[in-house]
Amino acid sequence: MVLSSAAALGLIAARPMRAADTPLAPDCVPLLTITTAGGAGVTSRDTPADCSVRLDPRGRPDASGRPPAALAATAAKIRGRGNMTWTYPKKPYRLKFDAPLDLLGMGAARTWVLLADYIDPSGLRNATAFELGRRLGMPFTPQCRHVWLMLDGVPRGLYLLTEQTEVAPQRVVTDPTAGFLVEFDDYDGEEIFSTPILDLPLKIKRPDLEGMQPAARAAEVARIMGVFTRLEETITAPNGPGDCATLVDIDSLIDWLLVHEITHNVEPRHPKSCFFHRGPDGRIVAGPLWDFDWAYDYDDDAAAGLVLADAFWFPHLFRDPAFRARVKARWTAIRVPHVETLPAFIKTVAADIRPAVEADLRLWPEDDDVRTPADAARLQAWLETRIKLLAAAIDGLE
């Protein structure tokens, strides 16, 4: 039975799910079991709840093909996360352990994210974008593994366990004294600093401004905003964009652009979830990648052309013949080995997690108002078409 968004929300509000009502955990993905203190659940994005976490790999190999270690019951904190995604019935979460832990071979860290992928019941959209980022060698792209979540004894469905976007030795690496991590995003909830020329909404994620004295805080804000002001002044110069290679890592920016173009991700048009950080050489580096559940064919079919050519920094950068030439050259280099093989990646992962996708759909009925079809073959065919149309658009750059 297909339920509308309102009907699905009403069903969940009227009668909480019970373990007896819901599918058993399919063994095609690792089992993540979280028990909150007193079974109180997770009700806040701001106030963490105490919990115990167990992780059973169930024989599933890590990225290197080795069986990862199980995690015995371990104390942690859990809270909700996300903006729009927190309003959906299937909630995303963030876990924080007391000490760094290696989960499913992804490296030791304290903080981890559980993406609910409610918009994308196929579980493939974020995973595919992250895979592309890794193939292109972007400085930090979150590793991820599909897991089945049990929360306080109740199955919550298929989740994507990912690394947190944060400054850390194995994650976003930036200078410890002059580094920064920023996000261009127009959601309320955090302080937004608008850039002076293009009026882009910028949030400073690191350094931690809240922990600073007023004078130091003002100096850090001025320093970081100055970096992006200089970039905007350069690329919006009246006679065409100036040479910004000393300000921004152009290679990383082109890879970031191409990942969003290949996946038809229009989030930078708002902008939302657009992360940048200071690289080891002091220049702005694009990434990490984040938030691709609204991408691909969510709003419309695979539109021909570049969807970001008139958005963010790119209408100014595309005035530069040298920038256009570098985009074409990079596309030529990555198309056959890394892009045209992505549909096969989707097919392989979809087959691997299919029982979990089917079980998740029984937990969370289809919702035509919000969710995309859980049809991997449809997504695969869409991507094949998008690659052909994008190739024609990029080849047409002069």
Chain-wise SSE layout:
Elements: H1 5-14, E1 31-36, E2 49-56, E3 71-80, E4 93-102, E5 108-115, H2 125-135, E6 144-151, E7 154-163, E8 181-184, E9 193-194, E10 201-206, H3 214-235, H4 250-262, E11 274-278, E12 284-286, H5 314-317, H6 321-339, H7 342-363, H8 376-395
Parallel strand pairs: 1-6
Antiparallel strand pairs: 1-2, 2-3, 3-4, 4-5, 5-7, 6-7, 8-10, 8-11, 9-10, 11-12
Explain what the structure shows:
The protein has 398 residues and is α+β, with helices and mostly antiparallel strands. It has a domain at 5-169. It has 8 helices and 12 strands. The protein has helices at residues 5-14, 125-135, 214-235, 250-262, 314-317, 321-339, 342-363, 376-395, and strands at residues 31-36, 49-56, 71-80, 93-102, 108-115, 144-151, 154-163, 181-184, 193-194, 201-206, 274-278, 284-286. The longest helix is centred in the middle third of the chain and has 22 residues, at 214-235. It starts with a helix and ends with a helix. 38% of the residues are buried.
Helix content: 25-40%
Main β-sheet, spatial strand arrangement: 1-2-3-4-5-7-6
- Cα end-to-end separation: 51 Å
Indicate the radius of gyration in whole angstroms: 21 Å
User: What's the order of the H and E elements?
Assistant: HEEEEEHEEEEEHHEEHHHH
Unreliable residue runs: 1-22
What kind of oligomer do you see?
single chain
The SS-based structural class is: alpha+beta
* Average pLDDT rating: 91
Put the structure in a nutshell.
The protein has 398 residues and is an alpha+beta fold.
List the keywords.
alpha+beta, 12 strands, seven-stranded mixed beta barrel, 398 residues, globular, 20% strand, five-stranded antiparallel sheet
